[in-house]
Every structure is written in structure tokens, then in C-alpha cells.
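Q: Protein A?
A:
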Amino acid sequence: MGYGKKNSNPIIVDISEAVSTQLAEKPSKADFLSYQTIPYNPMPPKQGLKTSNPKIVRKTDNNEFVVIQKTNKGYLLYTLNTKNGDTGVTSVGVNWDLIRLKKVEYSSLSYVWWDANPTIGTFASTFSAAGINTSQEQGYFGSALTSGSAISDDGTGNGFSVKTLGASSSVTFTIESSYEALTNILFMGSSGSSNSVDILVNGVVVKNFNPQSYRLPDQGNYAVLNFDLPRANFSTEKNLTVEIRNNDATRVFYFCCFNFNELKNYNGGRVNKFKAFQSGKHFINGAGANDYAIYDSDLGKWVGSFHGGETSEYAKVPWKNLVDGYEETQTLTDVATVPLSSWCVLNEFHLMQKTNLNNKGNMTSVFDFSTDGSMEMKFGLSNCTINTVNFYTALTCTHKDFLHVVFPEIASITTNANNYFRQAMGEITQRNSAELLDLNIRYTTFNRYRGDSRINPYVTQNVDYSKFYYGVVAGDASPINIQSLTFAKGLDFSVRK
């Protein structure tokens, strides 16, 4: 076969010589110290099935948002704001303009609905008033619903109520049409309730039903009945009349609301109310940065995020114009122009920001909530003149009850100590064993040559948190200026029971 024969093909010879030349070249020290050329490992992707269910976003204060997102079991309640930055002498302080992650709480349930006073007619009475954890909510969702606190669109935490429609009576509502035709009615059927109810849309009967047929053998029962509404179009008339007519001459009808759905099942149509139960079980809930921090060696102070010295130059979110229907008019909107206390249901949500770092650089931040059970963060540092010996890029103030790590090792966390994990893969899973909550942290990793032992990922556990630390520079002997850098972090929240 002539294995020892020299190849005479000029193209192959040229390629071979070029490869040999490249292999012979040795990288210089400057190459290794350049954060523009060094190799790094991107943030690992989330493992398993990825889904994206509807999520609720509410602006609860100036520069504050609450995001309600589905996770593997139940929901997550995120709080993001600019509040409670560090004012100590070791931080630059003054300005804390980055809208940053502050809290993540487990929620067993979230739902949406449409409710308003009738435009024609009145209900005879309120059978069961709205509240935090009511008999009607337990009647529909189950008696295991035990939470005593909740958040809602109006700040009360109240859910839906039950109204009594008198015998041979009707009520009419004006509902704005949307791009989703299917809607529903939530009601209670019992042995003493009406046996004939009509639903009329624009004066035409679209559904007749017997509420008694939905009751359980020994008790009343809450049920949902679907019906269609005309879809929105480009005509100027978009208001629909929906009439509920009780045909029974002696018995009442127990009405709750329209377009009632658990959040994960919401598929469009008009809603003007939401609720999410709180549990008091937190993945994150404490002071400190959940993103980055840079130590300015010239000032002897920390800067960025929780440590301040950061002013906003750009902050936008996708926001939905509820006038023209679900998703059709979602636009990128300045945070400052989003009305206070407004909310909407979105298929995807991200917060885009650009900040000035104490006039020594800029940070571009993108927080994305599109994937169920996860928040992903991307950062771009540019034009930076800060000389630093510590630059943390994946800080996470995990709740203090997360006392174990189950990846990359299975280990208990030692209190008031730095627990180091020297594995190179950018992923760690912290666990609250008492509540069976997992927080998986995925992050960009860099070559570990600028720092002391803290250049390795570690967790510090104390009375405030089980905080995760990792950075591109940590405890280095001499300051370094990193002019530009990109890095990312993903947080995956799971309920294991």
C-alpha cells in the first residue's frame, strides 16, 4: 500500500505543513492572560424535557416585578427589584439601578379568571365571599389546599366568589372579544340548585345545561362548562354581551366566573383576575447578589448589583396590550412606562437591561423566564477599566435551609465555612432535604489561574443563606483589568415531593 511513501500531492503537503507550524507554536503568557482569547466553557444546557407554559407578570412597584411561572410541580413566584442594596463601607452603594432577582418562592397553585359586575340585572346575594383559602377553592381544587397566604391582581390575595342568581332571573355581562373563541363558565351544582340554565351570546342561546347533573352523589360540586364566543376581528365593534339566564322558577343558580383556568391550562381569551398561593418555602430569599460582583481594587470597594454604583441606561420588557387580544400586540416596552400594578399573561418573558458601572464600564443583562422552572441570565461586560482581584460571575444567595449538595458531589454543607468543589463542569445542585426542594445552578466556567482557593466553586452556609460563589478572578495576588467578558448563569428550580 506504500504507507511509508511521502505524499506528493501539493495541497495535502501545504495543509500538513500549516498544521505542523500551528502545533509548533506555543501560546504566550499574554494569550493566557487575555480574557478576549482564553477558552472557556459555556453554561451547560438544562437537562430533561423543556416546556413553556403561560406565565403571569405583574409590576408591583417602581422597578419591581413579580413573575409566576410553572415548574415541575406547582409554580414559582419570582420577585425582582432594585431595593435593599448594600450601604456598608465596603460597597460603592448610592445607586442600585439593576433590577435583580431577590426572591423565589414555591407556590402550589395559580389560576386566572374573568369577573365583573353585570351591566344588566343583579345577583340576589353572595353565597360564598372571596378569600385567601375558601371552601369554594377547596371544593374545586381539593381539600389538600391548605395555604393561608396568596398574591393576586389586586393585592388582596383573594380568589373567586360564588354568587346566587335568583329563580327566573338573568344577568348580562359585557365582555371584550379576543382572538381565542373558547371560554367557559365556573358554577356550582347541587340538589337544591337550578335544573335549567341558558348561556346567551349577543342574544342567542349557545348552551343550555342542568347544573344539578354536575353535582356529586352526596354533595354539591364545582364544575366548568365550555362554550364559544365570536373571535375578535378588525371591525370596530368588539364588545360582546353574555347573558346567564336561570330558567328554574323556584331554585337559584350558583355562579362563579368566566374563563376560569389553572395558569398552565390558560389558552387565551379575556381574564382580569389572577391568584397564586404562597407557601413560605423559598429557594432564594435573602440579601446579597444573585448575579455578579466586582471588587474595585483602586477604591477598595465592591461594585455592581447588590453593591451599587450602578445606574440604568436601558431597561425594557415585553408587555402585552390587552385591548387587542392575547399575544397579538405584545411589544418591547420601557420599564418606566409599564403602569404600576398592571399585569398580563405572556408566553415568554425576559428583562433586558444595560447599566453603567460607576463610570468604569457597562454591563448588559438579559434575564429570561421562557423555560418552565428556570431563569436564565446572560451578561456582557464592555469598556471596563476596573482593576480587580475578585470578579464573581455566578453568585447565588440560596436559602439557608439548603444544607446539602447532590451534584457534583453528594455532601453536607459545613456551617460557617467555605465548602469547595473543584470539579470543572459548570453545574452544582443544592438541596433542601427537609422540603425536598432542589436548586440546580448552571454557569460559565473559566480557566482557574487568577486567584487563590476561591477560584474554585464553593458554598458558604450561615444564618443568612447557603450562598454559592464562582468567579473568573477570585483572590488574585495582583489586580487585573478585564475590559470585556461574556458569561451566563441558569437557575433550575425543582420540587421533589
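Q: Protein B?
A:
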Amino acid sequence: MSTWLEDQGFQKLEASGTMCEVWFSSASVEFLVLESRNDRPKVKQLNRILGRLCDYGLQGVTSNEQFRQECSLPTGKKDGSKKKVYAVKAHQLRLYGGFICGNKMFLVIEGARKKRDQADQEQLKRIAQALGSYDGER
């Protein structure tokens, strides 16, 4: 069904459930592989959070500390549309992404190790633009 994402280098989370699918960009996969060497429990925690998102949707991830909307930013499209950018958090590890195709697909675009709570605004802008470019593509 979503081979167009695979063509773009995305990998599907095996635990994708009934509420939505989670897809990882190649950059986010590289980040998780690198971080799993140093902090495997936190990487597993990120995957558990995303697994709950797959199974139960936004209602399944009730902790604002683990999953929260960071902002809503312009996608760069001529129609002026915006995309909500979410952060999935496990201590200092963050995965950033958002929903496309309604709320049926969650794309993880980038990851970061944060020393402070404030998100990198340039990174968030890149993610919103990437989400805008993938939304409506299929």
C-alpha cells in the first residue's frame, strides 16, 4: 500500500497497528542505530511510545513528557498550509515527525539528542516542510 514511502527511503515500524502506521526516514533510522549502541533502553522506550501511537492513536500516548506537539509551522507550499510537528521523547533522545494522510500515517523525519528542553527551530521548520512535501503524495 505505501510503497511510495519505501521509494523515498522510509521504513515501516513493524508494530504498526490499527490506528496508524509509523514510518521512519533513513536519517531517523541511522540516528536510532547510532543511539542504540549507547542507550538501548531509551531507544526501546521510543519504540514503545510509537507502538502505543499505532495501536491507540493520540489517545494512547497521554504523557505530554513522552509525546507532544512542538509547534505548527508552514510547509512551504503556496497554499500556506501548516503541519503540526510532534516530539517523541525518552530522556534526552527525541524523534521529530508528524501525521500525513489525515492521522493514518506518522512520519518520523529526524532524531536528536537534546541537552535542554528547547527544540531547534530550524530543525522544526525542516520537518514541517518535509511533512508538507510527503502529505498528499500518494
